[in-house]
Amino acid sequence: MKLRKTIPLFFVAGLVGWSLSACSSAEPTTLKDAYSGKFLIGAAINKNIVSGNDDASMEILKREFNSITAENCMKSAWLQPEKGVFHFDDADRFVQFGEENGMAIIGHCLIWHSQAPKWFFTDEKGQDVSRDELIQRMQDHITTVVSRYKGRIKGWDVVNEAIMDDGSWRDTKFYRIIGEDFVKLAFLFAREADPDCELYYNDYSMMHEGKRNGVVEMIKNLQAQGVKVDGIGMQGHYGLDFPDFAEFEKSLVAFADLGCGVHITELDFTVLPSPDSQVGADVAAGFEYQQALNPYSEELPEEVAAQLYSQYADLFAVLLKHAGCVERVTLWGISDADSWRNDWPVRGRTDYPLLFDREYQAKPVVKKLIKLALN
Ligand code: G3I
Fold first, then answer.
1. Is 266 an annotated catalytic residue?
2. N or C end of the chain: which has fewer CB within 10 A?
């Protein structure tokens, strides 16, 4: 008679218990889980993703990220292209997606000279509007938009890119017509519309000493007038040979010393040569296409990929060192295919700036960043 081997019940229970505990203590395998308790890991999402037309990106988004930023659909030119005419469909879908998936929702951006609709600054005769009229238009826009999402948005990029690399005021219509008080007014209008959401100042090239000092001075002046700035956004549009991480760290510490949370708001590392090293992330910049500026149109050489990964790892090492004041790191996109860097400052190039490739696969550096967080 064939002996039926029976396994004692206590052994089975022990085995099940062990395997469950082993699973529950298994190391995190996603970015958001690895950085849980350190800082949020976010991604900018575009209209395609917001509209549910990009399942591959959506799958990565839900798996790897716990914060989302509207890449474009909450900019004033999108929301209010004509005076008093608002288009909220995309923004509504963006906020709803964030709520349905338990994500920290970042509104970007209320006041930005670059993507404000033309009507914002001109009167019926095509002249510059008066200071009072522009203040009223700012207040109407901010109040309408922020009130609509009151209690649902973790934080707003209230003002974007108001300071130049040398620390001077950017010569925009907001600055020219209202003066530097446009920043204070924007924060006051936003705070009035939603007292509980966080309010940020956001800018690029923040590792430059001049920009750092100019932003610190501006924030100190706001604070001296009783205006609370909850966070400072360091956009993070970097490359293989910048930023200088020591200078980056000095800026991070300077902003944290103001009592503001530090947010890396638009992170990507271009691997492509820049036609102008001073161009920062000024979206107005544009240069003619030349093949020499698009050296990796077919694929990215391994040695260049290694430099890219090293840049990401070096940056995250600095961020982890200051995890106490870094509140969020947001990648400016999910897949390389959708990055704005493929078309800026030169249209029609092939860049590789993000963490997921054109096949929507995680680059090897993702595992490296997860490991960094666990060490
Ligand atoms: O959606 C329209 C499409 O209907 C039209 O056919 C096409 C014609 O060119 O334009 C499309 O809109 C483009 C939009 O991106 C969506 O792709 C706009 O022209 C283009 O200007 C816009 O570029 C965005 C840029 O900001 C200006 O708003 C980029 O996607 C976005 O990544 C970039 O992000 C900015 C941050 O908001 C602020 N910091 C700098 C960063 C890079 O410039």
1. yes
2. N
